[in-house]
Design a protein that fits this description.
Layout: E1 7-10, H1 15-21, H2 27-40, E2 44-49, H3 52-60, H4 64-74, E3 80-84, H5 97-110, E4 114-117, H6 128-136, E5 140-146, H7 155-167, E6 172-176, H8 184-197, E7 202-205, H9 213-223, E8 227-230, H10 244-250, H11 262-280, H12 294-297, H13 301-313, H14 320-333, H15 343-357, H16 366-373, H17 385-392, H18 410-417, H19 424-432, H20 434-445, H21 490-496
Parallel strand pairs: 1-2, 1-8, 2-3, 3-4, 4-5, 5-6, 6-7, 7-8
Helix pairs in contact: 1-13, 2-4, 2-11, 5-6, 5-19, 7-8, 8-9, 14-15, 15-21, 16-17, 18-19, 19-20
Amino acid sequence: MSANPLKICDTILRDAHQSLSATRMSTGSMLPVAAKIEAVGYAAVEMWGGATFDSAMRFLKEDPWERVRALKEVMPTTPFQMLLRGQNILGYRHYPDDIVEKFAELAVKVGIDVFRVFDALNDTRNMAWAMECVKKYGGHVQAALCYTQSPVHNNQVFVDLAQELQSMGADSICIKDMAALCPPYVAYDLVKGIKAEVDLPLQYHTHDTTGFAMAALVKAAEAGADIVDTAISSMAGGTAQPPTESIVATFQGTERDTGLDLELLSEIAAYFKEVRTEHLGQFETGLATADVRALIYQIPGGMLSNLVNQLREQGAADRYEEVLKEMPRVREDLGYPPLVTPSSQIVGTQAVMNVLMGERYKVIPQEVRDYCRGLYGRPPAEINPDLMRMAIGDEEPITGRPADGIEPGWEKAKAEIGDLAESEEDVMSYALFPQQAREFLELRKQGLLVPIREARLFPAAAPTNQGAKPTTSMAPVVRRTKRVPQSTSLWKVSQRLSRGR
């Protein structure tokens, strides 16, 4: 075993399928292979957070808390990692401080070990409370800086940010290159710069959208990165992470030898190849090759897959290229925010509006108005004054921490959901996603859901609607429900755009 092994965090249970197939992998498809994943010896497995929480209730009819419990039973020693959007938790807006604290408490209790905390604007005011709460309840705080490129961003900006995050109590630092923008030699310099100034473990995260992720991980490792994010090969590449096996093989016999078993990894890869081929293909973007245009559009992998699906639903797939070209223009107008949830949704929604309405800013969504009011935090650069005027008129934007103006929400959520909630976890699900949680909890109360532990990849006799053909879906199916029609409202579609990071 190497004295300085490169540690691996595999994203197969979260970011890989979020980026490639719109977060549609069910717990039932994870459990049969979980014991093999446990045997690998990963530094961590990213398996929660991001878009997995609401997608579980919305599309898979699963309890997201039960996913953690079910997998923890089979994977008791592998650290579970999640993506936590700071004050946004798992949603697309700021939540009250009491909700943030209660979420941290419940997430640690259910089995989450490592919390990758970030803010879409790299506004540390929006990260501080979440970091404090995670530490209070015994979780590991991995503070992430969202990498991007613009006239107001450079490596020194990110080194300074990493130092600030260390001073705020971070246990480790993550370079989060969600849109695959950091070229290999820039990655090398950035890792070197942070390691020289920050005495904390450093993790490197990227995507293969632009085609140089493997090289970026190698250079990051050479520069001293302690951990890198990869995805098992059958769910890697494209808008996901580079292949785990390729990184393992690259460093075999070197001072950074990972020590992981390629044969075991190949067995896991074979399993997920079947999952992807048989069940996830309908949700994929078709973006199978590297696209260096991402260097211009700066769109995260998870956003691309969902953007394609949402435009397809609206019969507007032919406008995809127009939306891509509009996004950097909107981003510039909004002060060059990194494109990561929720800023990616804000920019993406406005870009879709501008294209489909045929006139820029003819319709300005509420989220864009709130962004201009300062309710999401401090933008990296000044917002276009003309857009400010169109969005909020003469109103003065706030300058303080956005969450300071939000009333406590836990007792209110508990009262509103009432007897439908059987636990504090149910109350939290409702507090975060009221509509999706209420629908889910009503189905559960009626006994219409298949429990996670009973739902498997290929159920022999899955319950079906009367008169319907038997299903072979891997998802925990709803026993007897109406199909919810897709909304044709442009605004509702824009709200659902890209369940990104």
